[in-house]
Design the sequence.
């Protein structure tokens, strides 16, 4: 779930980017050839999916972890909000009887994410890979917004990354709030954490790689509703509410698993 922003409008000024590390530079060199390969990318996705499924099942739930099926059913169908870099295990926590569609960009980075999600029973909705303000971002965002609304109207869950790629991490963008306004469905923040993990400090979003043989937790925050007639001021207030709820859920998830460190 790489790119959950559909409007491309940054809620906060972008922070200065750090220089990518060697692994990131290598990935940038090979990601497009990989994405274009009909053989290589599916094989890589198979290995990635197997690896993280192993991580998921070797981290039993920590005491206090929420029940995903119960929470989703309570607000059915919700718009599940996740943070960039903290969402990896969400791909393996889909209840089998609940259909979930995930919003991803059309970028080369998102191809692997899409294949991994699809291997785990998700449907994917592809938006624009363009930057904010570009014609491709606007058109792709509008198409994705329509597709996601139709998904919700059909009674299916939508999962989106709430913060904007390379913007301010852990600050919700306006895209997810706009979808809640036009669909009438609640935003349900969700956070995943494991007691054993590796934080990639050089990444803009502090991407966290979950490791096996610890404990895992999923925590759902307070749902956020957006009125269909919300004006600009109310939309901004709702955006801040999503940020606060998702940050609180994230803090609680880490607190639950860190008892086992």
Sequence:
């Amino acid at each position: 779930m790489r790119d959950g922003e559909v409007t491309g409008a940054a809620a906060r000024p972008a922070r200065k980017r750090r220089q990518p590390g060697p692994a990131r530079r290598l990935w940038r060199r090979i990601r497009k050839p990989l994405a274009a390969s009909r053989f290589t990318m599916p094989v890589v996705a198979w290995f990635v999916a197997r690896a993280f499924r192993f991580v998921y099942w070797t981290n039993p739930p920590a005491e206090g972890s929420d029940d995903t099926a119960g929470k989703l059913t309570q607000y059915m169908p919700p718009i599940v909000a996740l943070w960039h870099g903290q969402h990896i295990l969400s791909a393996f926590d889909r209840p089998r009887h609940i259909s979930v569609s995930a919003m991803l960009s059309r970028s080369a980075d998102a191809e692997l994410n899409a294949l991994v999600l699809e291997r785990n029973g998700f449907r994917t909705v592809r938006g624009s890979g363009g930057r904010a303000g570009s014609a491709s971002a606007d058109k792709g965002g509008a198409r994705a917004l329509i597709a996601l609304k139709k998904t919700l109207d059909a009674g299916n869950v939508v999962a989106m990354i709430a913060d904007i790629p390379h913007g301010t991490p852990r600050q919700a963008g306006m895209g997810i709030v706009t979808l809640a306004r036009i669909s009438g469905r609640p935003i349900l923040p969700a956070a995943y954490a494991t007691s054993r993990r590796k934080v990639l400090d050089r990444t803009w979003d502090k991407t966290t790689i979950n490791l096996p043989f610890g404990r895992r937790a999923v925590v759902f925050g307070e749902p956020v509703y957006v009125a269909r007639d919300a004006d600009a001021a109310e939309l901004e207030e709702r955006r801040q509410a999503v940020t606060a709820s998702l940050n609180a859920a994230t803090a609680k998830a880490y607190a639950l698993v860190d008892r086992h460190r």
Q: What stands out?
A: The mean pLDDT is 83. Strands lie at 79-82, 100-104, 123-126, 157-161, 187-194, 197-199, 208-210, 216-220. Helices lie at 22-36, 40-57, 68-74, 108-119, 135-153, 175-183, 232-257.
